[in-house]
Write a structure and sequence with these properties.
The complex is a heterodimer.
Chain A: E1 4-5, E2 10-14, E3 19-25, E4 32-38, E5 45-51, E6 56-59, E7 62-67, E8 72-77, E9 86-93, E10 102-104, E11 108-113
Parallel strand pairs in A: 2-11
Antiparallel strand pairs in A: 1-3, 3-8, 4-5, 4-9, 6-7, 7-8, 9-10, 9-11
Chain B: E1 5-7, E2 10-13, E3 19-24, E4 31-38, E5 42-50, E6 53-57, E7 64-68, E8 74-78, E9 87-94, E10 103-104, E11 108-112
The chains are: A mainly beta, B mainly beta.
Chain lengths: ~110, ~110
């Protein structure tokens, strides 16, 4: 049973436009969400996170939105740059009373075209 | 500050053999997590160690085991290798646990023939 789903395996956008990566989860006990970015031949790098007490967190060009009722989060990248081309992983954790394991989605490959 | 290092970077083994992978976390980080990445399954959590104790474990068979030393360095062992164990094994360290920002190593690419 996949608790964190990234239904789009790939996404292609033009440089300067907005990239929207989506993630759905099934476990309502998840209370902390993170996005990681991974380039080929490198380990993932942390991008941005959000606690379930918030619905939005912004860091420069990156904004994560959380819709708890829909069990959905999204990562917005504005404006998109060619260097953003990578695989993006959504991850979720249950930090209170849970095992604090991090559950990852399968990733979305973003390609930003010049 | 040195990043997370993993050795070896590449490994080729045959079915039935065993393998040990090593991870050195960032200095001061006490939590080390291990993940398996395969094209079909994405990143799957194997286990997490904190101060030499296994705190969390994913849904992997007992052939997968690990340990953490007093200096926070961690090893992961896979016994009786199967073809399906071919994957990228990633180690990540953080100050307190996986829900903190984790820093990943470059991974060990294991190929089982």
């Amino acid at each position: 049973d996949q608790q964190v789903k990234q239904n789009s395996p790939s996404l292609s956008v033009q440089e300067g436009r907005i990239s929207i990566l989506n993630c759905d989860y099934t476990n309502s006990m998840f209370d902390y969400f993170l996005w990681y970015k991974k380039y080929p031949a490198e380990g993932p790098t942390f991008l941005i996170s959000i606690s379930s007490i918030k619905d939005k967190n912004e860091d420069g060009r990156f904004t994560v939105f959380l819709n708890k009722s829909a069990k959905h989060l999204s990562l917005h990248i504005v404006p998109s740059q060619p260097g953003d081309s990578a695989v993006y992983f959504c991850a979720a954790s249950q930090t209170q009373g849970g095992s604090e394991k991090l559950v990852f989605g399968k990733g979305t490959k973003l390609t930003v075209n010049p | 500050k040195a990043g997370v290092t993993q050795t070896p970077r590449y490994l080729i083994k045959t079915r039935g053999q065993q393998v040990t992978l090593s991870c050195s976390p960032i200095s001061g980080h006490r939590s080390v997590s291990w993940y398996q990445q395969t094209p079909g399954q994405g990143l799957q959590f194997l286990f997490e160690y904190f101060s030499e104790t296994q705190r969390n474990k994913g849904n992997f068979p007992g052939r997968f085991s690990g340990r953490q030393f007093s200096n926070s360095r961690s090893e992961m062992n896979v016994s009786t290798l199967e073809l399906g164990d071919s994957a990228l094994y990633l180690c990540a360290s953080s100050l307190m646990g996986p829900y903190n920002e984790q820093f990943f190593g470059p991974g060990t690419r294991l190929t089982v023939l």
